[in-house]
Amino acid sequence: MSLVVGTIVWVVIGTAVLSLVVYAVDRSTARQERKD
Amino acid sequence: MDLAHVHLLLNHFPVIGSIIGGGLFLLALITNSDDLKRASLLVLLGIALISIPTYMSGNGAQQAIASQPGVSKSLIETHEGVALEGIAFMEFTGAFAWLGLWQFRRLRRIPRWNLGVILILTVVSLVLMARASNIGGEIRHSEIRAAQETVTAEGALARTVGSFVTETPWMWPTCETLHFVGLSLLMGVVFLVDLRVLGVMKGVSFASLHRLLPWAAFGFGVNVVTGILFFVGIPHQYTGNKTFFWKLALVMLAGLNAVYFTIVEEPWELGPGEEASLTAKFAAASAVLLWVGVMYCGSMLPFLGNSF
User: Fold this and answer.
1) What distance in Å separates the CA atoms of residue B250 and residue B66, rounded to the nearest whole number?
2) Is residue B163 part of a domain?
3) Coil, helix or strand at residue A2
4) ipTM of the complex
């Protein structure tokens, strides 16, 4: 994998996957808050 | 005082701290005590923070003793490899412990799934840290060294990871970019929270901004992982640089400061239009100074020291 392609691919994948995890935590906590 | 002293000073904390934190956590689960749960999570979070300079100062200690007679290079490498596994699990333990504290603040309880994750991670971290500690002890203490030197496959781990970081064309720039993404998230959220406490955007309640804290923690986590990868890639670039250790010291203090905004009652009760207490304002102002200090030391590594 070349420098440019590798950097773009892994930065996008890394940021997207981790952001989805934090988003899921935020949503589930907000849902629980509303339920309580 | 050099890095060998720092390593000797800190190297018992990850094991003893994990035993204390893990023991308290187990007791909290048995007695179902919320206060004990929070106290144990604080201990585990603190140990996760202290583990960072403990691991990094190990390279300085290695340079100090590697050429001395009777010191096994392969034993040092095995110690380093197992310690790298240990710190990886320890940082995840710290991350989930922080998440538990944040969840408790919002829900008045910690979800069961997170309690299970923290328990498993704590046990694995403790086992790995104890192994790293025991092998570390064998380096200088011939009286506890077995007839057959402890050499495992993990001995090559740190160098394998380090070579991957430095020799793969896209790896270092990817980590560098993610380090800046993490920094932006962390600083963005931290400054929003701190400015509100200091009196800007008074119409916003603290609880609303508290919801954003996992994004800051996520940014911090990304920076810890990428920062460790940089270090494992070229350790001597950092161990010989005093500015780097100032940066680490400031990160420790800023991490403690973040705990105040995560769990303490005082800022949490700050409603729309209300003025924060003097204590909260002091914590917010010191957070701004500490994080700016972290950024300053990070960006000055090539200028105040010999990195890059």
Assistant:
1) 29
2) no
3) coil
4) 0.88
> Is B103 in Cβ contact with A15 (below 8 Å)?
no
Judge if B146 and B182 occupy the same domain. no
Q: How many CB pairs under 8 A join A and B?
A: 52
Number of domains in chain B: 2
Residue A36 to residue B105: CA distance in whole angstroms? 13
- For the stretch B265-307, pLDDT in tens is 889 889 999 999 999 999 999 999 999 999 999 999 989 877 7
Specify if A16 maps to a domain: yes
Residue B209 maps to a domain:
yes
Model confidence pLDDT, tens digit, residues B18-40: 999 999 999 999 999 999 999 99
Partners of residue A10 in chain B, C-beta under 8 Å: 170, 174
The total number of structural domains in chain A stands at 1
CB B118 within 8 A of CB B24: no
Task: Give me the helices (H) in chain B, please.
Answer: 3-10, 13-31, 34-65, 73-107, 112-140, 157-167, 171-198, 206-210, 213-233, 235-239, 242-263, 265-268, 278-299, 301-304
Residue A1 touches chain B, beta carbons under 8 Å: yes
Interchain proximity B107–A30, CB inside 8 Å: no
Of A31, A13, A12, the C-alpha closest to B211 is A31
Range of the domain at A7: 1-28
> To the nearest whole angstrom, how far is the Cα of A1 from the nearest Cα of chain B?
8
Rounded to an integer, what distance in angstroms lies between the CA atom of residue B13 and that of residue B159? 25
Residues B12, B116, single domain; the answer is yes
Q: Which of residues 72-111 of B touch A (CB under 8 A)?
A: 99, 103, 106-108, 111
Residues B14 and B154 in one domain: yes
- Predicted structure pTM score: 0.92
Tokens of B167: 């020799």
Separation CA B27–CA B188 (nearest Å): 37
DSSP for B65-96, please give it: HTTSTT--HHHHHHHHHHHHHHHHHHHHHHHH
Residue of B nearest to A4 (CA): B170
CB contact (8 A) between residue B170 and residue A3: yes
